[in-house]
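Structure, all four chains, one model.
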Amino acid sequence: MVVVMDLSAGEEQVDAVQRRLEENGFEIHCIRGVKRLVIGAVGDRQIISSLGLETIPGVMKVIPIMKPYKLVSREIREEGSVVRVKNALIGGSNLVSIAGPCAVENPEQMHSAAQAVSRAGATILRGGAFKPRTSPYSFQGLELEGLKMLAEAAEAANLASVTEVIDQASLEMSLEYVDMVQVGARNMQNYQLLRLVGRCGRPVLLKRGFSATIEEWLMAAEYIVSEGNENVVLCERGIRTFENATRNTLDLSAIPVVKSLAHLPVIVDPSHATGDRRLVTPMARAAVAAGADGLLIEVHPDPKRALCDGPQSLDPDEYAALMEELRLIAAAMGRAA
Amino acid sequence: MVVVMDLSAGEEQVDAVQRRLEENGFEIHCIRGVKRLVIGAVGDRQIISSLGLETIPGVMKVIPIMKPYKLVSREIREEGSVVRVKNALIGGSNLVSIAGPCAVENPEQMHSAAQAVSRAGATILRGGAFKPRTSPYSFQGLELEGLKMLAEAAEAANLASVTEVIDQASLEMSLEYVDMVQVGARNMQNYQLLRLVGRCGRPVLLKRGFSATIEEWLMAAEYIVSEGNENVVLCERGIRTFENATRNTLDLSAIPVVKSLAHLPVIVDPSHATGDRRLVTPMARAAVAAGADGLLIEVHPDPKRALCDGPQSLDPDEYAALMEELRLIAAAMGRAA
Amino acid sequence: MVVVMDLSAGEEQVDAVQRRLEENGFEIHCIRGVKRLVIGAVGDRQIISSLGLETIPGVMKVIPIMKPYKLVSREIREEGSVVRVKNALIGGSNLVSIAGPCAVENPEQMHSAAQAVSRAGATILRGGAFKPRTSPYSFQGLELEGLKMLAEAAEAANLASVTEVIDQASLEMSLEYVDMVQVGARNMQNYQLLRLVGRCGRPVLLKRGFSATIEEWLMAAEYIVSEGNENVVLCERGIRTFENATRNTLDLSAIPVVKSLAHLPVIVDPSHATGDRRLVTPMARAAVAAGADGLLIEVHPDPKRALCDGPQSLDPDEYAALMEELRLIAAAMGRAA
Amino acid sequence: MVVVMDLSAGEEQVDAVQRRLEENGFEIHCIRGVKRLVIGAVGDRQIISSLGLETIPGVMKVIPIMKPYKLVSREIREEGSVVRVKNALIGGSNLVSIAGPCAVENPEQMHSAAQAVSRAGATILRGGAFKPRTSPYSFQGLELEGLKMLAEAAEAANLASVTEVIDQASLEMSLEYVDMVQVGARNMQNYQLLRLVGRCGRPVLLKRGFSATIEEWLMAAEYIVSEGNENVVLCERGIRTFENATRNTLDLSAIPVVKSLAHLPVIVDPSHATGDRRLVTPMARAAVAAGADGLLIEVHPDPKRALCDGPQSLDPDEYAALMEELRLIAAAMGRAA
């Protein structure tokens, strides 16, 4: 940590900072510039925020040097992690495709979606049974019935399954039926939920909050891993910016940035990021070219009848065509798809 | 709702849109411009998103006209709502001051804070017993013990009390001890929690998510009110922008905007917005001048020993001086403080 | 400056950094933490960016400590600057009001606006003769004829005058007619224009770019002052954020932040920030309460006939009422208005 | 255009809107919903903003339907444009590579850069002679001498050349030496400069402003084309967001969005977008996979000695390796590189 003192800080103020640091076990180095005194301090990263240094008169700012996460850091595991979900290995040499409808609606829809995405090459089926919706008046999901439909469709098509959980009750129900649980973007900083999935013993798909920094996203993953669950897959799904031509701005540079900082696999959801099915294919290709370990794509047997997010869903033919294109890009990246 | 058709949309495509609208009870008006066909449709706002219009070939975009919220709308209640929390009336002619430490730490701290803010003119004591923290390694709150300390300190100083709740368990515990419950910025779109506080029978302080639009914030309030709880107070606390000179950017124009759209009271938290105690006083003054119904200010008996958010906390003397300044601005606004 | 080395940096890499720093006259201090080597370096702030340190293998990041601006810094002038524009003193104890229409349209409009704003208490008349417009097909200003109308109206009403300049030609023309020149938000990083106004010998109103950080804004002011012109007034006019309920988000915390960093006066333009005349009055009041030295308000004799920005313009009666309200807030702040 | 009236708007207010529209040649359609009156109006898109409709009492909002640009719109030219710069065709079946140093420094540097990028497959050499820098104390470019070095190096390596222009003087000088002129991100809304390059008779590379919406970017292109110059190439270079792990956030979805709206070619600059040479290669690959027509990459013979932007520059070997990777992705996209 580096503590920068005000131009006008007096000796007693500098002493106060040094005393506070030494009391807490930090080793101190003073660097006196022409206009500023800078105090370098070596010690425990985790307690910096509780030292209250910024409140000591004369302190201009405090700059932490170490990253705040540990368990997810690339520094403690040089090789990338591989997360197994049934037969799918996310983070390995194969590109993994997760696909399915936004919301589970009925058995026919799920069965039809499962068969279609399986034929096209997906290995994990998605489908929402608990839908966090902006409006209290929108369709909120089929809950338990939806989980059953998802599980049956996945099994019939020999796919693994993933669904979003939103609280303890939905998590407990889901664990009976699915292979992987998802924490959605709006819950990325719902720390109670992060702790719960950290203890659930099942792989977790952690979506980036639409206005979370990469550091905050990794801290959310740290919550899960710190509870003992190392099987976390990160999912970039667009961030909120001033641009409104797309629903969110897909931040593909997050892929190589996360890969350099953390050892967890990273996949991309171009459907939610763009909100527009015409943009899903180019953004899926770009995600693979940027190094993503997999894709999460919304596919609905009949998008114009979808109860949720129809405008961003592909139909089975469009998805099959997308997968063909991805195979070419994946091959250029030296990956199977 | 207005549906804009593509330049190239053919007759069958237009027919498909019209059929879909008519099937769902909408009345239709076609407006043919030189280059675009625009279809105006009058009907139920709540079902627009499930019509899947954007997925019909030839549709360029769908523009809703009505606001998505109803119960919180100024249109259904022309006069502003007043929310009573013990003796404090939020939204009335008096400016209401909520103050206290970020986290409850021990009985002495709470007692000392309560006496100080009461003397300065606050009527509601805040204090966190359940702390959602970015890092799993940071102090997470004293939970039940904290609630007791908060309640005792508030009672001794004749103050009402408010605390943040983060899930069902913390809500149930809090209802035993506090007069008002707070939903924090990170949980503004935790819809399960919104429903729970909507049924809890106690006034709710709903903080704006740091990247929520005003419309999303009002939809979150709509969740609470739609469960039968009309006692919702909105709290602006800064939004995330590119500017990093302050922790967040305090959006004071949200006050008059919300006042024009909704009938709920609006207060402001300049402590979290700026993250810097030197900016709290000017921003508190500005909030009152912009029309805020109250303020939420972090006050700690000894900020440099605070376990949480010390750098943004005022000490008792600073808070008393702030309240003096606010009285002058409030008087200029024709309000008591 | 602080240079943080990679965990894996070897001795030769550290040597390379040290050599590069020493060659350029920096004094070096090494701080060895458990996981990182940090190199503190004391020397010339201005050459840091040309050292290419980030390109040396093993360097993780470079953190400058000193601010990049000098001449505008509060550190070299503890007392705030006061800029004189004819009889108006911006930055002194009086609140200064600049008002007038977005664009100069004709002599009657300017005369009528000038008389109205003067009566209400403004001391500087604004009016655009060169309009930077998003569309090449929009009205672009009356140029020389507009300058003459502005000057005549200002003189008749005994007001000073200010107009926006956009290049060398418009600057040269304007210097014949106005007392102060304005650099608009879109030109805040047009460094050629900044240099030109830095040599023009007339006070400069420098608007903040709508996506400029405060540091970039101060660097733009540094450009002007470094050419010898100290008479720079900063104008906050809203920043671009994700919120679209207002045209931009007025960043009032910029006022106390700038005041702490720089010695230049700061005024606020709530008309452009909000784009909505109903928000101008509350945001003007808030700006004064936050410590602004003045206000820039769009006033048009007949806003619904305005060629430009009518929706955000006040009419003369609304402006007079606003000024009455401001007087109350200014008085509460200990200022005359 | 659609005009939405307030719930409370009376008959005279509706009449006032209709009169105003009819006076200006608009054809009117009224749609009366349960709670709102909506007026559809068909007429000239270009005059909407001067109608002052928002200022008429009772008007809630005005929603334009048509896009504000015409000449760059895909609607007037279904096939994409191809821009020729010497032998390079941007927008055709080949991926075009522009490369070179940020700033021209000396003849050896330019010669060495030109040879290296040519060998690797680039066809256009870049090099800045006029540098818009955030600090007035940074290196500002070699101007005329720099243009000569750029021209000589390009000619010797049989490359076309491009350089940034910042005002009339730099444009006039540059036209003597380079094949294409660039308008930088900070000048994207410098409308005087846009008009000048619109009349210069040379292809223009128009960078997206770092906080410009896609619509504003296309309007900037419209300025150039409206002056008679159709040879405009758009360049995405990252937008400003809250994320600070990268300098800017590269918005690759802008590529398919622009392609759907406009007929101009689009290239991508991953060097400025990320500010980090380690991210240039993955982002370059992703840009090609998203459908970019070319790339602009910073290459310096010795990045650690670069006077400008060394941290984001590739050295010749890294650039050659990047080009190898791009060939694979381009081939997967059915393009030569």
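The longest strand of chain C covers residues 27-32.
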